[in-house]
Amino acid sequence: MKWKQQIHGMKAYQPGKPIEEVKKMYGLDEVVKLASNENPFGSSPKVKAFLQQGETNHAIYPDGYAQDLRTAVANHLGVKETELIFGNGSDDLIAIITRALLYPGVNTVMADPSFSQYWHNAEIEGAEVRKVPCIEGRHDLEAMLEAIDENTSVVWVCSPNNPTGTIVTDAELQGFLKQVPSDVLVVLDEAYIEYVNDPAHENTLKYFRQYENVILLRTFSKAYGLASFRVGYGIAQEQTIAKLDPVRAPFNNTILSQKVAAIALEDQAYIEHCREANEKGKQQFVTWCEKQGLHYYPSQTNFVLFEVKADSNTVFEEMMKKGFIIRSGAALGAPGYIRVTIGTEEQNAKFLSLLEEVLYEQGVLA
Ligand SMILES: *Cc1c(COP(=O)(O)O)cnc(C)c1O
């Protein structure tokens, strides 16, 4: 058949292995997944209460405009309803942006390592991908500026960055946005924004008002604990949203997902609770890494990328045998490192003690 040339040899996204599969593979009763940065505490109890009453009519199509959720998000952020676009997860928005702006002959600039969907989608559209190496896990915005030329359509800034967990500071972003040509869209992917507590990171909403060529991406998949419902959204000026909207599939969120997202958004006390628990969990990892003398990136997220001084695929396999699914840095552009989602206090403690065993076996720790 006449496949697009770009998809020859392309591989599907390799997600963290599902819990049930790992249980069967190794005959384990309990498996903990710390691989995909989901919220270990799940979603707000209000979502669970809503789901139990189960009165939704699933025979009808959802509201393609997500009106109620749109109103809730607009009120929460203090933006106009017309400044929002909803996606089937922010993955969907990445695909929509790519489809609207990238094609053979144009290029797109991103950090390396960063979120794989940026380059994956760009390659499908046949655009040239320009990966700019991070410095100490942080975006090198100067070099990213230099990589921009007259054929650049989209620049991706992932802050906090997946997989390193680092942020772009407000001062850095200000300087960067001033210099990016006004016809280049800057995508500010903020999937982990709810976890950020560094004062160097200020309210980024002001940027989409200040710059027509900025879109912010946020999601209900991480801190809100609703990954399975697939809801993400973009915030940009009206004319940008109006350009992207026709590229969106007409019913890209389900009825249920729109409802639970709105309910979860209301419960900010729950998000605050998760943020605090995450801080404590992060400290468990940081303390451990420092004790073992292993390098880690300062994380502003619910995961930590840290050095294992061993083959990261081996460590990944060995930890899986012990009932913990994590991500090998080798798969994320950070060989020699592992990326671990911060779990509950108990999960973190168990994980770290088992990791100590593995690194002992690997001859890393004495
Ligand atoms: C998880 C993640 C996403 C995708 O989230 P969904 O809303 O579930 O599609 C986007 N960007 C980054 C950086 C992520 O880590």
UniProtKB/TrEMBL annotation:
Gene Ontology molecular function terms on file: histidinol-phosphate transaminase activity; pyridoxal phosphate binding
Enzyme Commission no = 2.6.1.9
SUPFAM superfamilies xref list: PLP-dependent transferases
List every position bearing N6-(pyridoxal phosphate)lysine: 222
Tell me the cofactors it needs. Answer: pyridoxal 5'-phosphate
**UniProt keywords, alphabetically:** Amino-acid biosynthesis, Aminotransferase, Histidine biosynthesis, Pyridoxal phosphate, Transferase
Q: Tell me, what is an example of a GO biological process annotation in this record?
A: L-histidine biosynthetic process
User: What reaction is this protein's catalytic activity?
Assistant: L-histidinol phosphate + 2-oxoglutarate = 3-(imidazol-4-yl)-2-oxopropyl phosphate + L-glutamate
Residue ranges the record marks as coiled coil: none
**Location of the Aminotransferase class I/classII large domain:** 30-352
Q: Where is the signal peptide?
A: none
Pathway per the UniProt entry: Amino-acid biosynthesis; L-histidine biosynthesis; L-histidine from 5-phospho-alpha-D-ribose 1-diphosphate: step 7/9
Q: Does the keyword Repressor apply?
A: no
**PANTHER family referenced in this protein's UniProt entry, alphabetically:** HISTIDINOL-PHOSPHATE AMINOTRANSFERASE, HISTIDINOL-PHOSPHATE AMINOTRANSFERASE 2
Q: Which family does it belong to?
A: Belongs to the class-II pyridoxal-phosphate-dependent aminotransferase family. Histidinol-phosphate aminotransferase subfamily.
**NCBIfam families to which the protein is assigned, alphabetical:** hisC
Q: Subunit info?
A: Homodimer.
Q: Which protein, by its recorded name, is this?
A: Histidinol-phosphate aminotransferase
Query: What does UniProt list as this organism's lineage?
Result: Bacteria, Bacillati, Bacillota, Bacilli, Bacillales
